[in-house]
Structure formats: C-alpha cells, structure tokens
Amino acid sequence: MLKKIKQWFSVVSLLLMTSACSEATIKNDNSDQLTRVEASNKTKEINNKSKKIKLLKENISNIRLSMAKQQIYQINNEKFATSTGLFNKGAVLHNLSINQDGVLKGSIVVVMIENKDLSTEIIKFGRSEKIAQATYRIIISGEQNLLNIYQRIKKMVGVKVAELEIDYTPKQKNEIM
What we know:
Layout: H1 2-69, E1 71-75, E2 78-82, E3 92-95, E4 100-112, H2 120-123, E5 126-132, E6 135-140, H3 146-155, E7 159-167
C-alpha cells in the first residue's frame, strides 16, 4: 500500500510539475507577446517623435534663412525688420521692440524747431497738414521710398523730430491689404 501511495504521489507530483511548466510556458509566451507589442508601440512613438523633431529642425532652418534675408532699420528710434526692403505706402515692417507688425501709412510727422516754418524743401515731398503747433503731417505723393525721404527730412535744418507714421491696427483675417 505504501508503494501504491508513493506511485500515486509521484504521478500527482509529475502532473503538477507538468501543468506548472506549461503554465509558465504560456505566461512566457504571453509576456513575450506583450513585450513585442510594447516594443512596437515604443518604436512607433520614437518614430513619431523623430518626425516631429525633423519638422521642427526644418522650421528652425527656414526661420533662420528668412531672418538672414531680413534687414534691420532704425526708424523712429526703434528697430524694424523687413525682408522686402520696400518702404512705400502699405509696406509691412516688423517692430522688434514690441514684436508686432505695422503698415507704413505713407506720411511723415515733422516737428519743427520753435519759430521755424515748414521749409519748401519738405513741402516738395507731398501735401502738408498742420496738426499742432510747429507739427505737420507730410503726406507723401506717389510711390516714393518713404525711408529715403524720412532720412533726408531728419537731417534738414530746423527739423526737431521726424517720424514715419506706422499703423499697428490689427487686420481682420478676411481683410485684404
């Protein structure tokens, strides 16, 4: 009887060990599949991040190129950038101090030294309007280079201050400039 119990115990032990091994194998197979899925997901995530980094690098490169093309000008005691180099009415300038775009209005405000009238040299650039004591708005005629005129007026005798008029009013999305 003891012999039968030992045999039976051996058979039960063998069965338990076999089932335990097969469960371990199944668990291993499942964990391998999970690991493969996780690895696949991580690979996709890394690929997506790599694509995003590549796009960001391209954008930075494009920004650097456009900035290299931009020219910086000192106007109205502030720095402005433009990539076109055009300074006619309607040209867009970027004010670097306030980080905002503005549009040239096509006029220059001139403040004369006291007891000085607007010179005929200034009047020849366009129509003049007196807007305050010793202060005039010169509305430039035609498609002239406003920067050149502004720089010339600033250097003239009797001129205390000259400023290009720049409009910073935000434009509506559907509005055409």
